Amino acid sequence: MIRTLYHGWLSPFSREVRIVLGEKGLDFDMVVEKVWERRPEFLAMNPTGEVPVLVETEGQVLSGAGVICEFLDESHPKDTLIGSDLLVRAETRRLRDWFGVKFYTEVTRNLVDEKLYKQFMGMGAPDSVAIRAGHENLGPNLAYISYLTERRRWLAGENFSLADVAAAAQLSCLDYMDDIPWPEVPAAKDWYARVKSRPSFQPLLEDLIPGLKPPKHYKNLDF
Amino acid sequence: MIRTLYHGWLSPFSREVRIVLGEKGLDFDMVVEKVWERRPEFLAMNPTGEVPVLVETEGQVLSGAGVICEFLDESHPKDTLIGSDLLVRAETRRLRDWFGVKFYTEVTRNLVDEKLYKQFMGMGAPDSVAIRAGHENLGPNLAYISYLTERRRWLAGENFSLADVAAAAQLSCLDYMDDIPWPEVPAAKDWYARVKSRPSFQPLLEDLIPGLKPPKHYKNLDF
To answer: Is the peptide bond before B52 cis (omega within 30 degrees of 0)?
Structure first.
């Protein structure tokens, strides 16, 4: 059977998995899962009720971006995205968690979830306190990306890794909503342009969410 | 130099690392870090400002329970706590995240942080809505532990793993506050008794937080 990814629109965690599948050159189908419907068949695959869920070619079910990405890197170890040196692996995972947990909680959830999901689900206007907090927290995080990339080729070291994948997946969702002040953060922008030019990233730039157009620069590699 | 763990009182994440260090038979010193003081030297080691932070024998600095435990398992691979089979490894990590992220957010933070840290920091009475949410979320999570341990020897499969470590670390903090209705959940209690009897767990049972005594059964292996 063909590998299938259950994902969500502008779900940064689904995007992490899509990039890693692309980096590893693996074929897969995608199915949009409307998580708020809480389908029993989906809950049976992942009791948390969240995307992403990956069903592998032999039917094995995996859930959670961090778990799936580690699994894909271990099952396709060529060109590792975690690193071989133990300290590089720890640094990669530290930054993966930074963007996948801390950045998501402080920024992406406040901006993307507030604006996008409330609109889709008819839950009323976005919470202005959350939106303000999201923008305020974005600044120091973009500065941290600049800080790291001024000292290293990629976020966790010399090689492109799950840290870059996690950070770019989050930023790509914010960028779709035109929430990133690129001119103010040239080093972060330079790093993001390099991620954006990777073949694994192209499918994300083709995403079109019904009723919500991205800004012109979203697809542009030279933004 | 001696390995040093910067930890916090009733910090479930610090406890995860303490158990793993014990399982691996590694010597270490412990230093209580009052994270709310935001010491510059500590922030330089971990910009998130959170415990645990582990300084290794050659001065390498690691932060975050998940990151540190993976590092310790990779650097001391004998008797792996993650597993060798790729799907077991994924299941271990799924459950580590379940307890380290979801359970912590839904339960431990609402109960332990509300009651303990507000008291220490003179932040007033605990928020009764948070306390109620914590207790309500605890039930389904204890039921999930029972469900898993009725089907498997340990949470992620046949072997004791980081999943058991993460779950028991969270529960031990709640148990110190006498927040677990053990008589109602015999299967979860049986599993916890088995974790509690491991030598790596004994130091946690000796913890005494100034001004806050644990219930009598906290230390008792036959509770």
So the answer is: yes
User: At A217, is the secondary structure helix, strand, or coil?
Assistant: helix
pLDDT digits (tens, 9 = 90+) for A167-204: 999 999 999 999 999 999 999 999 999 999 999 999 99
How is residue B108 annotated by DSSP? I
Asked whether the beta carbons of residue A62 and residue B90 sit closer than 8 angstroms, the reply is: yes
**A216 is a domain residue:** no
Contact B90 A101 (CB under 8 A): no
Q: Are residues B117 and B42 in the same domain?
A: no
Contact: A94, B60; criterion CB under 8 Å: no
The ipTM of this complex is: 0.95
CATH of the domain at B177: 1.20.1050.10
- Which of B67, B69, B73 would best serve as a mutation to test chain A binding (most A beta carbons within 10 A)? B67
Q: Of the residues B28, B54, B75, which one is the last residue of a structural domain?
A: B75
pTM of the model: 0.96
How far apart are alpha carbons A40 and A4 in whole angstroms?
Answer: 18
Q: What is the pLDDT of residues B145-163, one digit of tens each?
A: 999 999 999 999 999 999 9
